[in-house]
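[09:14] KT: can someone run the structure on this one? pasting the chain below
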Amino acid sequence: MSSPKLQGTTPQHVGENAVDCAFAVRTPLVLRAEDVARFQTFGFLVLRRFFEPAPLADEIDRVMNDGLLSSHGLTRSGQIHFQYVPMMTSRTPASLSLLDRTEAIAVAVLGGAVLPTRAKGVRYFGNSPWHVDSELPVPSIGILAYLGQLAPENGALMVLPGSHRPEFSNAIREYGGFDLAASAMPSHAIRTEPGDVIAIDEHLFHASTGGIVRRQWRTDFVVDPIGREAEAQTERYYAGILPPDWDGGYDVDRYPSYGLDWRQSGRPAVARLESLGVYELAGRQEEIARSRWRREVL
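[09:31] RB: done, structure tokens below
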């Protein structure tokens, strides 16, 4: 299939430095076959100056200010500490615009139609050990955009190139690399500036060190499944994202995962996500979080 066009992108590859990169701002480019091959080989790709960062940064700050519940504190997943709020409503137009534009990246590197997860604004605190974002045999990628200038010494994303491949991944696990500190294994640090976008295979090992607070926008894409077996795996993928007992610590009424704004948007993925039961999963999680919050304020 032909590669989709991406607006305002300059692919960045392993070993290149952000400050030395030749930029192309809002110029139609094609994600080249060699860029796709590089992603498939190393598990990540960086696209420089992909979007205008100021509106998204302002949007994330506003969402964090009026979406987080003051009583909740930090959310924890293993050794990773963070706060997040979904950005999938008419209150977050910059987020939805970036989700729509990055779909072309996912289509190119995954090789076919894709479905999105929820976009969200995130604040990470401190270091993150070596980990992967998915253990499931489902092709999926994360799209990350940091809203600060990051280098190895202040929390830049660190990756083990090629570790999304099963043989390498298994070797890292046998070595005991899972949950090791970021400095414990040789790695590649991805320098980024606001406006850059990182595409990362969700099975790739990554970490960070030296950062205090890092603002990030993120969404994920999964291949639109064909056949009942693939659909069952994809349903399991979304169930892992939306477990019923998870409380993200944000206002689920103001910032739902998939509210009416999304479901009435006419996007091609809307009906497909419904058929896979994703909205039911999100609704169940939000109702439990809503009930918990009501009990706390009484």
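[09:33] KT: thanks! The longest helix spans residues 278-297.
[09:34] RB: yep, looked fine to me
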